[in-house]
């Protein structure tokens, strides 16, 4: 086969083209472009091809997967095209092999050298930018290896003392320096002349660091991206790595590449969820500078076409497409951004931002056309509008409220004092009602009390022998709602006519029935109107509960309270009927015979039997579903008023009684709002309890994410297994305090950099006076 013909361009100005794409045979894992930007190599599990970049399209030039049964050496996790030797490629295989390829070979198989020193998948390969024969690899086994392509084995091995190396990158400006990122969140900087120990290590992200990239112009800037959805730029020229920029994205960052000729621009793509490619200006990290939205699946590889051309970006994806993006065709999110904003502060302050032109007193005011007058006019250079953010100036107004009138102390105390589980339902309601009452929130307190009444089991029926004054009584009862059939055996029936509350008067000496209320309707079987007076004084409802007869001994001698729920009554004939309190046959009446024509007085004992009602006239045991609509409306009311604390607390305490009445999306919204408030007030324990008690799957997983701890032994630096705190390798206890040298029982804090730690209080006191590790390893520990 002939040697591949190549077209070399002297400068990026000769590069031209358009936004275009081609379909691949399989999903791509990585792409790399040659030095003169005329060809691109695409590698994946089932694809390994070279494409030519022509004016209007991609043209396949070479398929490197040859043979009837391609080996796993062709299954690539990463690919790198040498930037000095135009025919040299390197790939990282999923079987742990590092393979180099020589495109100048006349045979069909272009494989050059094979290195199989790694034990697990190789995640990254990187050529030295100026040294032709130097190749660096990083593997899942935690080791980095440096290969001299003139030899058949590695010349140096670097141990990151971590589980996995995710990325390695040679510094463009420093000949001997390379950076490596790890799954434990650390970034290490190494000198290739010292494979025994890294020069610098710092924790860059919470969670794995998937990628890094050295700035092509500024030797001190290193960009890193991780699973915490952040891109951070570090200044490596200082004694300690200093974070100078931070960009918050919407998904974990899989790739990061600085944009050529643009000092503050970098491109990123995500590992999952988000399919777009973003170009960020790190000085304005809250909105992307440009977006490429062509891919339909996760973008796996991005590379700028030429190291001096910022206008062309190449990308490969799991949707089996290869794209060339022109920067002028990118979407600009800032053009769709709303320059107006409204936000409430934690204590009720209101911030409002709007265009200056909308709120300025001079509505016709126009900006100066010559640019910013703060600089001399002869220094002003008209910027390229395609490389600038939209210039929208907004004015911010803040309306403050009185702090004392909007204090949130009640919220914190309520969250700390409320009981949501661990006791019977009635006790939880009573406790929470008491908490609300003490915090001067009567409406909330009453709500808890009503919930207890609605959903608690009814009280047991009263038993004989109890004092009358201790019985639970009805607040009021309607005399004309009782039947006048005094001697029949049928049950109680309601009277005809409208219900009305009657006045009840009591005289302890006797009970008199008079006919001086003309508005009272006639009861069934009576010839006139009747009003029932108990003495001269009218009793309040509350007095009915506290009343106890003075002549208790007489009552016990003449009458005892019946077993029945209602006191039995007499028969009154040819007279206005007394209150239809209870019914009984004539023969069973203990006081009145069936032949009596008139009854005008009742004994004091009977007066007590009239009002001592221990059960209402209907069954008090209503199903819980009867109250659910009311409770649902109540919870919505509290949530709409902003008191999601009450809504969530009631939701947890009631549990299955009300949960099915409210849709899952609404519950999740309430939970998220309450948890956010708790975390703002740093009520971490209460927040965690709410998460644990939630039944929403989206909530219960909140305290289960990012909780995996990768622990190294503080003695031998090796990763520890999950079986205990004793290292399998050196058989030393890992939880020994570096200050007092005793085993830590309880809270243990350790440095992610050097693995040393100890008692929380001891480490805090030590780091107040010294920045070095108390174990004497020399590491600069930091407690935050």
UniProtKB/TrEMBL annotation:
Q: Might you give the EC number(s) for this enzyme?
A: 2.3.2.27
Record keywords: Autophagy, Lysosome, Membrane, Metal-binding, Repeat, Transferase, Ubl conjugation pathway, WD repeat, Zinc, Zinc-finger
Q: Which reaction does it catalyse?
A: S-ubiquitinyl-[E2 ubiquitin-conjugating enzyme]-L-cysteine + [acceptor protein]-L-lysine = [E2 ubiquitin-conjugating enzyme]-L-cysteine + N(6)-ubiquitinyl-[acceptor protein]-L-lysine
Q: Which GO terms describe its biological process?
A: autophagy; cellular response to amino acid starvation; positive regulation of macroautophagy; positive regulation of TORC1 signaling
Q: Which Pfam families match?
A: WD40 (PF00400)
SMART domains membership: WD40
- One Gene Ontology term of the molecular function aspect: ubiquitin protein ligase activity
Q: Name one GO cellular component term.
A: cytosol
Q: Which PROSITE patterns match?
A: WD_REPEATS_1, WD_REPEATS_2, WD_REPEATS_REGION
Give the UniProt subcellular location, in the record's own words: Lysosome membrane
Q: Would the keyword Metal-binding be found if you checked this record's keyword annotation?
A: yes
| Intervals holding WD repeats | 115-157, 202-244
User: Domain of life of the organism in this record?
Assistant: Eukaryota
Q: Which pathway features in its UniProt record?
A: Protein modification; protein ubiquitination
Question: What function does the entry list?
Answer: Catalytic component of the GATOR2 complex, a multiprotein complex that acts as an activator of the amino acid-sensing branch of the mTORC1 signaling pathway. The GATOR2 complex indirectly activates mTORC1 through the inhibition of the GATOR1 subcomplex. GATOR2 probably acts as an E3 ubiquitin-protein ligase toward GATOR1. In the presence of abundant amino acids, the GATOR2 complex mediates ubiquitination of the NPRL2 core component of the GATOR1 complex, leading to GATOR1 inactivation. In the absence of amino acids, GATOR2 is inhibited, activating the GATOR1 complex.
PANTHER family in alphabetical order: GATOR COMPLEX PROTEIN WDR24
- Stated family: Belongs to the WD repeat WDR24 family.
Name this protein carries in UniProt: GATOR2 complex protein WDR24
């Amino acid at each position: 086969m002939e040697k591949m013909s190549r077209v070399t361009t002297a400068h990026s100005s000769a590069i031209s083209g358009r936004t275009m794409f081609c379909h691949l045979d399989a999903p791509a894992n990585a792409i790399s472009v040659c030095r003169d930007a005329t060809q691109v190599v695409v590698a994946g599990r089932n694809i390994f091809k070279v494409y030519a970049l022509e004016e209007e399209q991609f043209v396949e030039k070479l398929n490197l997967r040859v043979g009837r049964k391609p080996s796993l050496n062709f299954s690539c996790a990463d690919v790198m095209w040498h930037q000095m030797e135009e025919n040299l490629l390197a790939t990282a295989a999923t079987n742990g092999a590092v393979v180099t390829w020589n495109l100048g070979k006349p045979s069909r198989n272009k494989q050059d050298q094979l290195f199989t020193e790694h034990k697990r998948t190789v995640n990254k390969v990187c050529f030295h930018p100026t040294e032709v024969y130097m190749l660096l690899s990083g593997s899942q086994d935690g080791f980095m290896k440096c290969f001299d392509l003139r030899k058949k084995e590695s010349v140096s091995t670097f141990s990151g003392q971590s589980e996995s190396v995710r990325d390695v990158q040679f510094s463009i400006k420093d000949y001997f320096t390379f950076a490596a990122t790890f799954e434990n969140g650390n970034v290490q900087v190494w000198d290739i002349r010292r494979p025994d120990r890294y020069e610098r290590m710092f924790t860059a992200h919470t969670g794995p660091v998937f990628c890094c990239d050295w700035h092509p112009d500024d030797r001190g800037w290193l960009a890193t991206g991780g699973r915490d959805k952040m891109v951070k730029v570090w200044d490596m020229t200082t004694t300690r790595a200093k974070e100078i920029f931070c960009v918050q994205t919407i998904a974990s960052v899989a790739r990061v590449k600085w944009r050529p000729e643009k000092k503050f621009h970098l491109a990123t793509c995500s590992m999952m969820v988000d399919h777009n490619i973003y170009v960020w200006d790190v000085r304005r990290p809250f909105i992307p500078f440009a977006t490429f939205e062509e891919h339909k699946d996760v973008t796996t590889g991005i590379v700028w076409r030429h190291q001096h051309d910022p206008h062309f970006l190449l990308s490969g994806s799991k949707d089996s497409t290869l794209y060339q993006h022109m920067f002028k065709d990118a979407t600009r999110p800032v053009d769709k951004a709303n320059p107006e904003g409204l936000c409430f502060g934690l204590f009720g302050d209101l911030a409002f931002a709007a265009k200056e032109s909308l709120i300025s007193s001079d509505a016709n005011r126009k900006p100066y056309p010559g640019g910013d007058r703060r600089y001399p006019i002869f220094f002003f250079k008209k910027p390229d509008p395609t490389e600038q953010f939209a210039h929208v100036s907004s004015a911010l107004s803040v309306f403050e409220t009185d702090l004392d009138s909007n204090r949130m102390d009640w919220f914190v105390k309520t969250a700390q004092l409320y009981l949501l589980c661990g006791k019977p339902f009635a006790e939880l309601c009573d406790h929470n009602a008491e908490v609300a009452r003490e915090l001067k929130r009567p409406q909330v307190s009453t709500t808890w009390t009503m919930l207890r009444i609605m959903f608690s089991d009814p009280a047991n029926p009263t038993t004989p022998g109890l004092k009358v004054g201790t019985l639970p009584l009805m607040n009021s009862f309607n005399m004309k709602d009782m039947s006048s059939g005094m001697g029949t055996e049928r049950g109680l029936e309601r009277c005809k006519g409208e219900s009305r509350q009657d006045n009840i008067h009591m005289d302890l000496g006797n009970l008199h029935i008079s006919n001086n209320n003309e508005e009272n309707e006639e009861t069934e079987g009576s010839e006139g109107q009747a009003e029932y007076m108990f003495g001269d004084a009218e009793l309040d409802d509350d007095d009915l509960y506290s009343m106890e007869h003075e002549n208790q001994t007489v009552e016990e001698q003449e009458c005892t309270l019946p077993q029945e729920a209602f006191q039995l009554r007499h028969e009154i004939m040819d007279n206005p009927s007394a209150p239809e309190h209870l019914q009984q046959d004539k023969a069973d009446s203990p006081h009145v015979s069936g032949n009596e024509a008139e009854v005008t007085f009742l004994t004091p004992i009977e007066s007590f039997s009239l009002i001592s009602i221990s059960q209402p006239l209907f069954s008090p045991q209503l199903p819980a579903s009867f109250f659910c609509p009311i409770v649902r409306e109540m919870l919505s009311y509290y949530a709409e008023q902003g008191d999601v604390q009450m809504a969530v607390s009631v939701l947890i305490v009631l549990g299955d009684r009300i949960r099915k009445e409210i849709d899952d999306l609404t519950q999740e919204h309430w939970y998220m709002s309450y948890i956010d408030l708790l975390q703002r007030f740093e009520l971490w324990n209460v927040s965690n309890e709410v998460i644990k008690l939630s039944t929403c799957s989206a909530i219960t997983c909140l305290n289960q994410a990012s909780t995996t701890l990768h622990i190294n032994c503080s003695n031998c630096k090796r990763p520890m297994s999950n079986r205990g705190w004793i290292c399998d390798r050196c058989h030393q206890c890992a939880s020994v305090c570096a200050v007092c040298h005793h085993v830590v029982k309880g809270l243990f804090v350790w440095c992610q950099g050097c693995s040393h730690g100890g008692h929380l209080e001891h480490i805090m006191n030590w780091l107040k006076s010294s920045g070095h590790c108390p174990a004497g390893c020399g590491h600069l520990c930091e407690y935050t």
